[in-house]
Design a protein that fits this description.
Helix content is about 45%, strand content about 10%. It is of the alpha/beta class. Among the domains are: about 90 residues, Arginyl tRNA synthetase N-terminal domain (Gyrase A, domain 2); about 100 residues. The strands form two sheets. The protein has a four-stranded parallel β-sheet with strand order 6-5-4-7, with helices on one face. It has a three-stranded antiparallel β-sheet with strand order 1-3-2, with helices on one face. Helix 7 links the parallel strand 5 and strand 6. The chain starts with a helix and ends in a 9-residue tail after the last helix. Its EC number is 6.1.1.19. One of its GO terms (biological process) is arginyl-tRNA aminoacylation.
Amino acid sequence: MTPVELSRTVLRAVRRAVDEGELSVTVPERAVVTVPGPGGCGDYATSIALQLARRAGQPPHRVAEILRTRLAATDGVSDVVVTGPGFLNISLNGTAPAALVEEILRRGPRYGVVDGYVDGSTGQLRRLRCPREVRAVVVMEAVARLLRSQGDLVRTSCEAQPDPAWESVLGARVDTYGRPADSVPLDVDVRPVPAPADPVPLGRDAALWALLHPAAHDRPRITDEHLVQRETNPLFRVRYAHARTRALGRNAADLGFAAQPGDVPDARELLTHLADHPRILQAAAATSAPDRLARHLVTVADAVLPLLPAVLPRGDEKPSAAHRSRLALAEAAGTVLAGGLSLLGIDAPEHL
């Protein structure tokens, strides 16, 4: 069972509980599943019971127990445990890692976007506005991409006409500028700490990273450190990890074998971060915080890099099922890195 299928399974459990009269709530559009937090267990967890408890007029733990019995009877689910105030921890029948990798490879860079992770689009219109300042415009554009990835319709506006270089060099554009009519509602006022210097000379990718990687309340550093090709530069690590995964795919093809999802026992941390990617996208969109996605990509890159030396056979060694499984996992990580960089407006080169 993939994360997508499990999310839908959780929603079906809610619908059955409503239909059978045990819960009196409106079935939500989303059921987010993610990796278990501290004190959790199993393959995935969901806080859907905490989300529904107040509307249902019941304690979260009681709502969780109602859903647990229905989830435990589902094919592909081996166990469901309630922890904390009402978190549902779900164990699957031994195929969760392979299913996750299969899902990522099937979805490609769109893994985690709304049409692949939940049922349908919200279609909600979000209006964003920012001052005429380069970081504000860049952050607003990234927030707009994140919201669109979660199914929202987005319109952006700036208080005055932006510098043309912000669009031509940085790719940051706005739908309109100038003073809006008082009757136009505003959903998000994007006002990060301004950039201390002009980032345009850094070029598109380094400039965007410099502006988006720090949290909105932090002062960005506009220096050449974002251009250096070494491990101290987190942008380099992310792009290097992506390029390495692509190179491994080419090298494997030369050796006559291809990726096949399977068990990779020593990669639990990486699998955890890949499974968490849809939640990160949703949270980054909901909080207007593209820095959360940027930091997540660094985490994925740092988790996949130690795996890469063991992907290809060495010497006279023949490709085995373990090599194919590790290659599939590496390619899945590269896919997440490419998709995440794209949402930040940054290129993910195949060669670096």
